[in-house]
Write a structure and sequence with these properties.
homodimer; alpha/beta; 434 Repressor (Amino-terminal Domain); Rossmann fold; 3 domains; elongated; DNA-binding
Chain lengths: 354, 354
DNA sequence: CTGTTAGCGCTTTCAC
DNA sequence: GTGAAAGCGCTAACAG
């Protein structure tokens, strides 16, 4: 048996079955209003030929492609792959296919990818913008004839609906919790970042420590393990060492934990640690790591649902201008109190992993 | 400004620019053999209209879609998202788009998804078969007119090229290492599984312990944390408790670690632990976890490269039968010796995370 | 119930 | 250099 056969077409099926093309068309679209005998014969030919309708031809007729695009920085990042999974599920439930493209947070790649999806005539688009302020992206998105939903980060001053976690409040929640524990010198460890989410978190941290009459200790020099280690070493040996660390990002939390462990600094004894974003082994490490948890799946699900809602709003067959009402969906975050902040959960840690 | 405009077509561009459709076609395909003045005018119209060629129409003309499909169990699994990322990179380098669909290891969903990709006329397909023995899938794949590459798991008795890690040798490497440490009662902890990879690993374990004249201690009852805890508790309190555990899967390793920690069993003092598949915090846990590491990125990259190689083999425009030469690419795995198996790495653990 | 036919948007000869 | 026209595979009137 050889592979690489020519791809059969509808008219070939029609010819072999001795019927017209419209009959075959009816068969593959449900088989209504077709004589049972004819139907069976056509179906047999379809199977024997391994015929599958060419979507391109349908699309050309102006139908929905039943395809949606997702533009994210990376597929390997648990936050985005979690979102992607939730979005896929909704897409699948709506009989649509999801095309995921990645940007590595590069604005050029980002616009290129939006363009690729446009060529593919996706019915809708979900995007986590590399830079919320990117004017070129805003214009590209605004000019699109399909619904767009932003996740994780909004598109500044545009009518694009966005679904995000409340990063400001999340950081506030974290900082306030550390304050409640009695820590007075809370350091915020973060990368110098143009990312909307990080800026919001920094801002939430600053407002909260300042409101408590304490001074903000912000270190934005963190990039990788080495820089984290350096930042922690420097601050600990300074005249005014922190008694708690709030890290704004998953990887930073882990680097910080490793560095503290490396220097044999007791957690939370000498320095408490509270991170942003939960991760699988946060409860397994010793001490277990307290974090702010984002509703990842919910972000993905709501974004996808909002997108489908917008798609159905548009009258079938005739696309027309809809009032550009801006929608912002903000989701709340949750504090997962474990040991590293000074809390001692009652339940055995392992129970969390069941 | 209103969204939801009608999508402009090539002939609209032609009309506004006062040229024929073929001229516009030439412009969007590089602009060769077009008068510079005309070219500039047409380009201006294209920009002002925001025209983007409709891929469907091109595809209909019989061209490559420049689209590839990837069928995997889950996108949230680090192994598969790692593969996906590598495949995406190769696809992008070859100017192609990757469509990822997930099956949750369900054979029905799997065939459905292959069909969806077929409708989309993907140029090639990469798949991690839910079940290597699935005859229906084998037939579906065999009947495809496009190249197919299997990853992680082969498609039994088919001509489908596959790229996999050598799971048998990986397990052998792991077991032998534990034997070299002097452990005599090595338990293999695993899920009762129909998965090819798991069966291979079990087999590698068994052959190795038996070759050493020891008896195999296989527990296939592991499903989640609870069952892992139960399995470990039972075996430890038996008359013949294990002195080492080889777990065949990432999540099982973590469950086992948590359970041992829960029972305050010293690792590796009383029971050593060696897992399959590396994970981010394996070196950060105390003790750090030794594992067998698979070349994830390489699997993805080689699969994608092999796929593109096959695609280019087929003479352009005329698809014909190629000799069904089966290719199997087997990649070797690597032992990452950390503390849990009894080794004490010289380097400070943290250095690994830089 | 079923066949005929006119395009959907694009590329590509083939003339001019 | 440029345009007219045919046709890719399919669907949707419109006749029969």
């Amino acid at each position: 048996m050889s592979r690489k056969k020519a791809i059969p077409t509808l008219s070939e099926v029609a010819k072999r079955a001795g019927v017209g093309t419209s009959t075959v068309s009816r068969v593959i679209n449900g088989g209504h209003r077709v004589d049972p005998v004819t139907l069976a014969r056509v179906r047999r030919v379809i199977d024997s030929l391994g015929y599958v309708p060419n979507l391109a031809a349908r699309i050309l007729k102006g139908y929905r492609t039943r395809t949606m695009g997702l533009v994210i920085p990376s597929i390997a990042d648990p936050f985005f792959s979690g979102c992607a999974e939730a979005i896929q599920a909704v897409a699948h439930a709506n009989d649509s296919l999801l095309i995921v493209v990645t940007t590595q947070n590069d604005p050029r790649t980002e616009i290129e990818n939006v363009d690729v999806l446009r060529r593919h005539r996706v019915d809708g688009l979900i995007i986590a913008p590399a830079n919320s302020q990117n004017e070129a992206l805003r214009q590209t998105l605004e000019a699109l004839s399909i619904p767009v939903v932003a996740i994780d980060r909004p598109v500044a001053s545009s009518s694009v609906t966005s679904v995000l976690a409340n990063n400001f409040c999340g950081a506030k929640l974290a900082t306030q919790h550390l304050l409640d524990h009695g820590y007075k010198r809370i350091m915020c460890l973060t990368g110098e970042s143009t990312l909307y989410t990080i800026r919001e978190r920094i801002s939430g941290y600053q407002k909260t420590v300042e409101a408590a009459g304490l001074k903000s200790m912000l270190d934005t020099s963190v990039k990788d393990y080495k820089s984290t280690e350096y930042a922690i070493e420097t601050s600990l040996s300074s005249s005014d060492p922190p008694d708690a660390i709030f890290s704004t990002k998953n990887s930073t939390t882990i680097y910080a934990f490793e560095a503290l462990q490396h220097f044999k600094v007791p957690i939370p004894g000498r320095v408490a640690l509270l991170g942003y974003d939960d991760f699988e082994l946060a409860s397994t490490l010793r001490p277990s790591i307290s974090v702010i948890e984002q509703p990842i799946e919910e972000i993905g699900r709501l974004a996808a649902e909002s997108l489908f809602a917008q798609m159905l709003e548009i009258p079938q067959g005739k696309r027309r201008a809809t009032p550009a009402r801006r929608r912002q969906i903000q989701l709340e975050t949750r504090l997962v109190a474990r040991s590293s902040c000074g809390c001692s959960p009652r339940l055995p840690e392992a129970a969390e992993s069941q």
